[in-house]
Structure formats: C-alpha cells, structure tokens
Amino acid sequence: MARIVGRIGQRFSWKSGIGGGIKRLPGTWAPGPSGTRFSTTGRSGSEPSGGVIVSFEDYPVISQAYRTMLGRMFAMVANIDVERSAMVGFSNGAITTSVLVSNHDEFILNHFRSFCMVDQGMFHLTDLHKSRARECRFLILVGDQPDMGRELKIRQAQLQQEEWKLLGVDLSCRVMEDTGHEFNEPQMTIVRNWLLPEVGGG
User: Fold this and answer.
1) CA–CA separation, 11 vs 6, rounded Å?
2) Which helix or strand (DSSP H or E) is residue 85 part of?
3) Chain centre to alpha carbon of residue 107
4) 18-49 pLDDT per residue, tens
5) Cβ-proximal residues to 89 (8 Å cutoff; 6+ apart), any chain
6) For labeling, which of 30, 68, 121, 191 is most exposed (least CB within 10 Å)?
7) What is the mean pLDDT of the chain?
8) Distance in angstroms (rounded) separating the CA atoms of residues 99 and 79
C-alpha cells in the first residue's frame, strides 16, 4: 500500500495493491496503465511469497505505473506544493517506494520531498547520497513484535540511519512498540507527526 500526501489544504490518499497498484497473480496477466500488460509467469515457483515481492527488476514497470497514475492526479489537482508533499509506503508499498527512490526516479523526486517506509523497504534503500535524493528526508518505521526476520528488519533500519547520517542524509528510523506488520491509525499518527510541519496544518 502506498499513500500520497499533498499540501494544498487537502490530503490525497492513494492505496495500491501488491506491486505498486497492480495486484499480480502467478501465471496471469494484469492490466496496467495505458493498456500495458504485465506477466508474472515463471516467477512464482522459486520466489518467496509467490513472486509478488517487489524487486529492483520491477523498476521499469513500477516507474511507468506510478508516473501514469500519479500524473493523472497531478493533472486534476493544481497547486500541489512539492516541498510539502510526501510518499508513504507500507509492506510491499514500502519496498516499491525504496526502489523508486534508489533508482532516482525523476518523476517521483520531482514531486515529493519526504518518504516514509513502514515495516519494509529498509533493505532496498541505496545511493541516497546522490544530489536529488540527498535533498529529501526519509523515515523508516519498523514494528517490534516477533515476526519472520523481525530482528533483521530492526538491525537494518538502524544501520541505514547510522550509514546515511555519516553522509549527511536526513534519514531516521523508529522502532514502534507493541506493533507487528500493520499500518493502522496509531502508525499513521506517527507518520503524520513526522510530516509536520511539511504537510501539517498552518
């Protein structure tokens, strides 16, 4: 799931399915923007979670899908303040957000300045020291409840914070207490408070 927040006195929410707006089923075709079709045949048999976990290999498809979907929104809504706009991704949406940023996607970096990855995506963030990404701010949220790879997620999030601090990148991480793999109102409140005053009131 990905959520887009814009600051013009309104809040924009866009929730995606698995894989950045395209819910992919093993061995099927899924309709994409502008009539494009995406095939997942041959990926599910040997990959975790049936091959639906986003990877850097998916970047070309993700980039096109987000550019098309978000482009339509930006065309309909005028006067969105880029400096106070944010992209928030949860789970596979967090990985998608990280892949877009790490590939220095021109469309995404032209329209957003804050990025939050919730309970995933910490393994896919790289090259944030480059000029375009360096101008942005980042938050990694990770739950503390036992789960597959939970300790690795926490350690990686903390390593990301320490690594990018050395290079002057504004990235922080937070371990959420009594939280598993979820993104509900308590977690949304944490994100909302982090975004203030970027997309908050006033």
Assistant:
1) 6
2) none
3) 14
4) 333 333 333 333 334 444 334 444 455 677 77
5) 1, 2, 3, 95, 96, 97, 98, 115, 116, 117, 118, 120, 121
6) 68
7) 81
8) 27
- The tens digit of pLDDT for each residue in 150-174 reads 999 999 999 999 999 999 999 999 9
What are the residue boundaries of the structural domains of the chain, listed by start? Answer: 2-20+57-195
Q: Can you give the pTM of this predicted structure?
A: 0.77
Q: How many CB atoms lie within 10 A of CB 72?
A: 11
Contact 129, 169 (CB under 8 A): yes
3.40.50.1240, 3.40.190.10, 3.90.1150.10, 3.40.50.1820: which CATH number matches 2-20+57-195?
3.40.50.1820
Q: Which two tokens stand for residue 190?
A: 């944490």
What's CA 15's distance to the chain center, in Å? 11
